[in-house]
């Protein structure tokens, strides 16, 4: 029994002696003389952003227009990159086979399907944009009811095109 205690004590002392050598492997050791050392500091920031898109877009009738706001906030992305929001889809609504096409405008600019509606370069703040959805003038509904369709907003971080 006494022998087991001695073995346990010897093993414990060995571990205690081994531990400081493991810890000091990455630490700097100084002598009594004045010295200095450069120590690197790292802070890793993952890309993040908040993009707000509408949950639903309503086109009024009889005006045949609607609007939607798109915005980006707290954009933290890699330098030299750009956050982009694009819109795609058929740009139409339908009911029982009656299809009405619509145009998407950003200010005075017509946006084609797949077109970019918001660009936020790294390190900048963006103003929100308003998109206007207008049913084409030559299209008129022939049924009462809810004409429905979808658009798809695609959010990407890309290298800006010159």
Helix-strand layout with pairing:
Elements: H1 2-23, E1 48-52, E2 65-76, E3 82-89, E4 92-95, E5 98-106, E6 109-111, E7 115-121, E8 129-135, E9 151-158
Antiparallel strand pairs: 1-2, 2-8, 3-7, 3-9, 4-5, 5-6, 5-8
Report on the structure:
With 162 residues, the chain is mainly beta. It has a domain at 48-158: Immunoglobulin-like (Sandwich). It is 14% helix and 39% strand. The chain has one helix and nine strands; from the N terminus they run αβββββββββ. It has one helix at 2-23, and strands at 48-52, 65-76, 82-89, 92-95, 98-106, 109-111, 115-121, 129-135, 151-158. The radius of gyration is 32 Å and the shape is elongated. The protein starts with a helix and ends with a strand. The relative contact order is 0.20.
Describe the structure concisely.
The protein has one helix at residues 2-23, and strands at 48-52, 65-76, 82-89, 92-95, 98-106, 109-111, 115-121, 129-135, 151-158.
Beta-strand fraction estimate: 35-45%
Helix content: 10-25%
What is the global morphology? Answer: elongated
CATH architectural type of the domain at 48-158: Sandwich
């Amino acid at each position: 029994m006494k022998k087991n205690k001695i073995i346990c004590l010897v093993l414990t002392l060995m571990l205690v002696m081994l531990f400081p050598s493991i810890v000091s492997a990455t630490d700097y050791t100084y002598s009594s003389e004045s010295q200095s050392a450069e120590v690197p500091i790292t802070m890793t920031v993952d890309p993040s952003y908040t993009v707000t898109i509408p949950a639903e877009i309503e086109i009024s009738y009889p005006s045949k227009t609607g609007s939607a706001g798109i915005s980006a906030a707290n954009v933290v992305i890699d330098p030299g990159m750009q956050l982009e929001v694009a819109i795609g889809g058929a740009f139409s609504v339908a009911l029982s086979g009656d299809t009405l096409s619509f145009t998407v405008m950003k200010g005075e600019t017509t946006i084609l399907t797949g077109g970019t509606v918001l660009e936020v370069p790294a390190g900048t703040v963006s103003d929100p944009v308003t998109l206007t959805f207008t049913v084409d003038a030559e299209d008129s509904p022939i049924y009462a009811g809810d004409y429905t369709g979808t658009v798809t907003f695609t959010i990407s971080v890309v290298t800006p095109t010159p």
